[in-house]
Amino acid sequence: MEKNQELMNLIKNRYATKLFDGKKIPQEKLDELFEMIQYAPSSFGLQPWVVKVVDDEETKEALLPASWNQPQINTASHILIFLANTDIRSRIDKYEQMLLDSGATSEKAAKVAAIFNGFEEGLDEAGKKSWSQKQIYLAVENALLGAKALGFDSCPMEGFSPEKYSEILKLPKNLIPTVVVPIGYAADEPRPKIRYPKKDLFI
Known about the structure:
With 203 residues, the chain is α+β, with helices and mostly antiparallel strands. It has a single domain (2-187), classed as NADH Oxidase, CATH 3.40.109. The chain has helices at 2-13, 27-38, 57-63, 72-75, 88-101, 106-121, 125-149, 162-169, and strands at residues 49-54, 78-85, 153-154, 175-184. 28% of the residues are buried.
């Protein structure tokens, strides 16, 4: 029961921080957060995303105008930029090899890869982008709650220009900026949390 309450407190107390104090998060805390993100669920377990981590002031300042000048960007300790990876085939190939490395037979690994490849072949470019971006939000939730559990704050953002981000960060075409999550120590106060009543959400 205590653990349930602890999780509920994290869920209720997490909020979209609009201003950070600029203090750096210790590397060991970052490593813990990255592991939490690493273990996020995804369809087929393919995790069709990568996270670009930005911590230098020069890049933050370059990204600021592309983020509508929102102060989360240049006051955060780090910025986590969740990128949808539309090169799903490479993810499948890697997954097949990981199956083999974990002790699966070549026959089993090939069978799993064939199922995954059949799914991938049924997607056009727009479908690959949409599917990959949907998986990102599962990882983002781990990032938000993980940050709060580790003693710092976060802010999920869609208010930015993906095209400008791609240009500034010199990203390959298959990596699409989807959600930006600045993390750090809050320098603002949470506003009262407004949520629809359960009767409007559960039918």
